[in-house]
Amino acid sequence: MKNPKFRIWLPKSKILTDDPGSFYVTADGDVLDINNDLPFDEEPVLMQYTGLCDRTGREIWEGDILGNTLGGVIGRVFHSTMYAQYVVAGLGFSEPLSEYRISEIEVLGNKYENPSLLERLGAD
Description:
Layout: E1 6-10, E2 15-17, E3 23-25, E4 31-33, E5 45-53, E6 59-61, E7 64-68, E8 73-80, E9 85-90, E10 93-96, E11 105-110, H1 115-121
Antiparallel strand pairs: 1-2, 1-5, 3-4, 5-6, 7-8, 7-11, 8-9, 9-10
């Protein structure tokens, strides 16, 4: 079994990092600053790697916005506790990430660094 990978978003500082040398995630999901090199005076947003990569080899994380090969926006990736799996939520639908062909999707950005993608999607 692989160890889970995490990244964090610091909203005030607009910092996104998945550097495991910068932070530590406890078993309870708390994020701790390891080297005091991140501005932890704000609440970090924790995201987990899905274990999948898109058609270009880019890792797919919670909070990522996926598109198709035609340039359209499909939806936002999140972990559904109800279904116990990663789900893609689009305009009026949600489907398991496992239903998509990896060869046909790509990460366009994420909801934190690229909020305009959410506007195109019509979501929050």
